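Bug report (template v2)

What were you trying to do?
Predict the complex of my protein with NAP.

What happened?
Run completed; filing so the output is reviewed.

Input:
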Amino acid sequence: MRVVVIGGTGHVGTYLVPRLVEAGHEVICISRNQREPYQPHGAWGQVEVVEIDRKEAEEQGAFGQQIADLEPDVVIDMICFTLDSARQLVNALHGKIQHFLHCGTIWVHGPSVVVPTTEEQPRRPFGDYGIQKAAIEAYLLREARLNGFPATILHPGHIVGPGWVPVNPAGHLNTEVWGKLARGEALALPNLGMETLHHVHADDVAQSFFQAMANRSAAIGESFHAVSPAAVTLRGFAEAMADWFGEPARLQFLPWETWCDSVTKEDAQTTWDHIAHSPNCSTHKAQRLIDYHPRYSSLQAVQEAVNWLIANGAVQI
Ligand SMILES: NC(=O)c1ccc[n+]([C@@H]2O[C@H](COP(=O)([O-])OP(=O)(O)OC[C@H]3O[C@@H](n4cnc5c(N)ncnc54)[C@H](OP(=O)(O)O)[C@@H]3O)[C@@H](O)[C@H]2O)c1
């Protein structure tokens, strides 16, 4: 297959592109060519890199046609955030490709009702990002089911891997939380620490795209969660990580407003975004239909990322 990956040098592309090359696909990666993948891999030597700034190309109404001109069999869109953006691509690719895979997010779900949340549950997104992604999902599924556009949507959880900062047990990205847990220092968590996070290793997200491609007929017209086998509570996550560092977890639990005063405004906002969603998503449908079997638990994925942070001096233990 000739596979175009739009935004293929990021968290997921770092793992997905080598997988595709190793499987014998011809891979073309679209990016602004501003960054390198997180991990080196010999497969990148066989990848054609096409430099396009999607935002600029879309403003000129040229992006969809530029992708169609590459004559792909499969298009994997990692960086679509608005309905207009999705429409431009679908209009240009209709009837010309065998499979279209879009990267969504588990934030198409709003607050959970019955957990683990399945893909079938009604969408109740909030926040611009989740609302836009849910609108794109609804549009692509409709195009698939009514007009035969071969779309599949993969919804990752909080993507984790060596090279960037994972969401921590306080629900934000400040690396000082890891330092506190590693040194056995007190760590304050909001509320009772029972809200949830649902991580996924970037290589498992790559696996979900790869498996959807390999199980095309079952995947078209469907969306799938790409998450670890199970979500974690903030409290359980903090305790497990302290244990991993070999220190007792010295946790304090503070009411939301009081807790907000103990962190920066930015960290409080990030935590709110995570715990207001408190995702807990099922992998059952992806297991059943596309044979998705995540290799990493949430804790294993985070531990690999934290080991990288420690090795690179980003966490003082
Ligand atoms: N991060 C998470 O935890 C998370 C969770 C759920 C869902 N998601 C979804 O994951 C997707 C992002 O995947 P990712 O995390 O693997 O990507 P990423 O790490 O953010 O990398 C983005 C990729 O897109 C390229 N890019 C960025 N802006 C571009 C532009 N204007 N034109 C062309 N290329 C551009 C980047 O390369 P250059 O910079 O060189 O152009 C890079 O290859 C999004 O759809 C997001 O909604 C992410």
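What did the reviewer find?
Residues 7-13, 30-35, 52-55, 78-79, 103, 105, 156, 158-159 surround NAP (CB under 6 Å). The first strand starts at residue 2 and ends at 6.
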